[in-house]
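Hi P.,

Sorry for the delay on this. The queue was packed all week, but I finally got your sequence through. Input first:
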Amino acid sequence: MRDLREILKSKFAFLSFRTLNFPLYGIVLFSIFWFFYALQGVNVQEGEVAGFDIVASKTIEIVDVEKTEELKRQVLSNLIPEYRVDEGINEDLKKEVNEFFVAVEELRSGTPVVSPQVQDVFCGKWKITRGTFERLVYSREEEYQEMKNTFLGLLVRHLFQPIRQEDFGKTILEVNTELEEMRLPAEVSQVVSFLFYRFLKPNAIVDSEATQKKRLEALQSVKPVLRTIPRGTVIVSRGKVITASEVKALEALGLLGREHLWVRLLALVLLIGGCLSVEYYYLKRFDPALLNRHAFLLLR
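Then the structure:
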């Protein structure tokens, strides 16, 4: 019987009080530390209704999420999109202008006098005035070429830039200013100005890629709006819906921060395990008799 007891004792030595004491002691320490750590936090989320008041335990400075987002919305609302030239519109416009001058030159090379019926049809088709028609058809060749070349030169130069609908009037004024600076004969300037007004079309379309890049740069330039919360301030009131800015305040106070929970858990396990290992090997080497004193192991 005694032999059997000795065999069981040697076989299940890992179940002795001395062996189990240290792991059990570590579990107790871990539970105590983790309990007090859990008391320091609150388990709330954005959109929930607070069941109790939460007060700031210290003065903190946080980002005011709502005001920062409002500032970003204001910046984006004032942002002017980037535009680029629609080459399809330009090509259609050039084709229309070319057909117009071909039709004019056909009349110039025809009979010396165009009948009123033909004039009405021509003016109705191309949407020009009778005076413009007469200057284009009945003017001398040198004057006609000056009107045509001046108009085409101005048109091509302005079509290289995107023209928005809201900038149409501004472009016409710029053309008239250029015509005044050229000091052309009054009849030539009037015809060119009218043709420019008649044929010019907005050719700008939104450049999505450039506009998106501009939006991102504008958002990155917005500095966060900071808000100071003095100690003792009620951050979350009981019965109120928790907002994003209140969640940020709780995180700044260290009352949330559950994203690093496993890291803290592992750190606590390693700390307690390391301390107990050092204690065990210290006693085993310098005073092994204490390991057999159950009262000491219980009261330490």
